[in-house]
Design a protein that fits this description.
Distance between the termini: 30 Å
CATH class of the largest domain: Alpha Beta
CATH superfamily of the largest domain: P-loop containing nucleotide triphosphate hydrolases
Number of strands: 12
CATH architecture of the largest domain: 3-Layer(aba) Sandwich
Shape: elongated
Strand order of the largest sheet: 8-9-7-10-6-11-12
Largest sheet: 7 strands, mixed
Helix content: 25-40%
Length: 341
């Protein structure tokens, strides 16, 4: 079954080609990408190939394009709004390509009608990996980010932080316009375009995609298990991700149910007496609640000491991939039979 078509038309040939190359590297975009440098070739192509999404420069927009049967048109603007194009959403051309595609996907996800039915997702099954520990200060998030970046070098991978306090804006040194709180709101409203809205929020660290975490702890505490399950089901069924990394905090609703959804769980542990006592309590609780299968698919990790810090031009998250912690986790993943680059 053929993917829906995302067409890019810009009279500036170098821009169109470079943008197409960027899109083809983005593993989370479930479109077939086509680039055009003239209106004539676009119209000729559209005559026999239905276009679902068109990003077209304001200089290339014309009556003939308006008459084409296209699912959604977004204008690639060079600045000032051109007369007669007010009915179309627009994005600014001269910004980072990642920001352009994020805004385009946000516009596409805002459509009122349901678009998923026409939108086949061509991928293998999605593996859910959970990273959780009942202990604090055990490098849990560092481990989750590192595993995500390692696996993202082979497969489309999405990292989802489900903690009350993630500190991502502080780590990356910038704010995010939309985050997991917005996605949870759309999920609670049973919005039919959840994945497309999500694609408009996606940020990156290396090859790893992530949704910016919530800003308020209340958004984690007030989200019920059914909403989490609905969100995960949408991502698995309607996105191109083959690996989903869940960075789980103890505050999420029905934690053990979420852990049961995971195919594999990585649990960092500490060797001091109090940490071992807490782990024993955690395991006893699983037995009491008939959740022993969680431990059967749990890999305990004893990571090396890691005290990385941000340096000029890179973030802490980016440094993790080739750190001592990264080397340790590559060994763990290889022992499981995974092919790691």
């Amino acid at each position: 079954m053929k993917r829906s078509i995302f067409a890019v038309c810009d009279l500036e040939a170098s821009y169109a080609v470079n943008f197409m190359e960027f899109l083809n590297q983005k593993k989370n975009i479930p479109f077939e990408i086509q680039a055009f440098t003239s209106v004539e070739t676009l119209i000729s192509y559209a005559a026999s190939n239905p276009i679902e999404l068109l990003l077209i420069s304001d200089k290339a927009m014309c009556r003939e394009v308006r008459e084409l049967k296209i699912g959604k048109i977004v204008i690639l603007s060079e600045g000032a709004r051109m007369p007669g194009l007010d009915q179309y959403p627009s994005v600014y051309k001269y910004q980072a390509s990642s920001d352009v595609i994020r805004e385009v996907m946000s516009c596409y996800g805002a459509r009122e009608e349901e678009v998923q039915a026409r939108f086949p997702v061509l991928k293998k099954t999605t593996e859910i990996l959970g990273v959780y520990s009942p202990l604090r200060r055990c490098l849990k998030t560092s481990i989750a980010l590192t595993i995500g970046q390692i696996l993202a070098r082979q497969k489309p991978t999405l990292y989802l932080n489900m903690e009350e306090y993630a500190g991502f804006e502080e780590m990356f040194g910038r704010s995010f316009d939309e985050n997991l709180s917005d996605l949870l709101y759309y999920t609670g409203q049973e919005n039919p375009n959840i994945v497309h809205r999500m694609n408009g929020m996606i940020q990156n660290v290396g090859n790893l995609d992530f949704i910016p975490p919530v800003r308020s702890p209340w958004d984690i505490r007030s989200t019920g298990y059914e909403d989490w399950k609905r969100l995960l089901t949408e991502i698995i069924g309607n996105s191109c991700y083959e690996v989903l990394v869940l960075d789980l905090g103890s505050e999420v609703d029905e934690l053990f149910k979420l852990l049961k959804l995971c195919d594999r769980i990585y649990m960092p542990v500490l060797q001091d007496t109090m940490s071992q006592c807490k782990l024993q309590q955690y395991e006893k609780l699983q037995k009491a609640w008939d959740c022993e299968k969680i431990m059967e698919k749990t890999t305990k990790l004893t990571p090396p000491f890691h005290a990385g810090r941000q340096t000029s031009g890179t973030t802490y998250a980016e440094q993790l991939l080739w750190s001592e912690l990264g080397d340790y986790l590559r060994q763990v993943l290889r022992r499981e039979g995974r092919k790691i680059i």
